[in-house]
Amino acid sequence: MRILLLGANGQLGSDIARLWQGQPDVDLIPATRADADVTDFAAVQTLVARTEPDLVLNTTAFHNLPLCENDPATAMTVNVVGGWNVATAAREVGATIVQFSTDYVFDGNKRSPYLESDPRAALNIYGAAKIATEDTVRIANPDHLIVRVSGLYGLAGSAGKGGNFVETMLRLAREGQPIRVVADQITAPTNTAEIASALLPLLRDGLRGTVHLAADGETSWYEFARAIFALRRLTPDCQPTTTAEFGGPVRRPLYSVLGSERIPRLPHWRDGLERYLREKHGPLS
Ligand SMILES: NC(=O)c1ccc[n+]([C@@H]2O[C@H](COP(=O)([O-])OP(=O)(O)OC[C@H]3O[C@@H](n4cnc5c(N)ncnc54)[C@H](OP(=O)(O)O)[C@@H]3O)[C@@H](O)[C@H]2O)c1
Q1: How many domains, in total, are found in the chain?
Q2: What is the rounded average pLDDT for all residues in the chain?
Q3: pTM score, two decimals?
Q4: Is the confidence at residue 161, as pLDDT, over 80?
Q5: Ligand 1 centroid from CA 34, angstroms
Q6: Does the annotation mark 153 as catalytic?
Q7: Of the candidates 12, 102, 111, 96, the residue with the CA atom closest to the CA atom of residue 60
Q8: CATH code for the domain in which residue 256 is found
């Protein structure tokens, strides 16, 4: 399989590059914004035509939530128009488009894991943009796989958000600051390495359509923070708070766990966290 990977320096993209390069049946072509800005159709078309992939993976996104809320035009351009451009350029060379999406396409009113067939209803501009991205990708290229993921953290840290939750918690603990973390948003934080490890066999099997690929189990961000501190034997002053108390300009779903009616869930979030901490910070004592 010849695979063009867009967003190769991002959090998910860099783990895909790290774990897929050297696989015997994979010819991976990593690409970044310097190779093609996804909002520039001619640049994307030229890159895709030149590299002649069987699959194009689009991990690019504009997903800083407050920035999306303040600048909906850019949120729509990078996510929706970018998705359209990549999916269309892929179709023109007969390639499959693999587009990443989010748990934030859901409103959080459920209390059991969201399935692929559940109706979407976003609460914020980012979620709305990703719903529109999913739809434009489906229209642009019938040969598509849309992969919804949740609460990503990876070795590279999120380019768009400046780091990741795990590293932010470890930094705050090191600095000795009181830490307040929301305890009423329930999700399944997912190590991007687990997504990269599971996705390649699914692509080899020819999976298409829409699929959820997230860690098993569920937890609040507060309990997740406590698990990080426990595994690193840290004892900061960490207290739970609520979304209402925490404030902020963006409405977020209070429950956004992704289950699947199509494929097994990834390893439990605790296992993904342990793998991340070992790979980033060394053995767990
Ligand atoms: N992070 C999460 O918690 C989360 C949760 C659910 C779903 N997702 C989805 O999962 C996917 C991967 O997220 P991630 O956390 O890996 O993101 P990330 O680390 O922020 O990486 C995003 C990548 O997109 C690139 N990019 C942004 N705008 C671009 C443009 N106009 N043209 C070309 N490249 C551009 C960035 O390049 P530069 O370095 O040049 O900016 C970066 O490499 C995204 O679809 C995201 O919406 C993420």
Answers
A1: 1
A2: 97
A3: 0.98
A4: no
A5: 14
A6: no
A7: 12
A8: 3.40.50.720
